[in-house]
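@channel sequence for tomorrow's demo:
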Amino acid sequence: MSLAPLIGQSGSISTHKVSVSGIDEQDHMIFGGVTDTGKALDEQVVERLFELPCELTPNGAISIPPPLKNVVDSREMDLLEQLKAQKAEWFAEESQKLEKWAEDKIAAAEKELSDVKVQARDLKREMRSATDPMDQHRIQTRIQELEKSKRRLRQRIFEVEDEILEKRDGMIADIERRLQQDINTQEIFTIRWSVI
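structure tokens (generated this afternoon):
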């Protein structure tokens, strides 16, 4: 990025640290700069200004001019929106994982129940054609076991649904923890600049 358009101009630069604390702590640097005419500088231009050789001219305390404050505030808002979008993306991904896991768990439990129902139906057909009392007794015993198994499997589906609700409650609690965050902005420095 060329700094040639800034030759002969002056302005102010301010650097701020935005700290986001909570479950995942982060620090971000914001670079804002304006010319004395109030024109905002791109962040890349501000960073390039730091690469130039400089000469320190003691000037005392420098206050942030309103146009520069607006630039810094706008960049902070952009940063916070970006972090919010990242959290929304994380939430969507976690929700999809939970839904997929829930669908798989319920499908597995329902398939197991369906398999037992098919076995019971097949045994009932076999029972109707059986003529030997020992075979009839064996088949009736197996049918009885399968009926008990069907009841257990139906109960298992309810348990799986309860497990899903618990996982969802845990995810919501995690999201609430992630949403509880403190944002602290600290001015690192503000300087005047002139490109000669």
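heads up for whoever presents: The longest strand covers residues 182-194.
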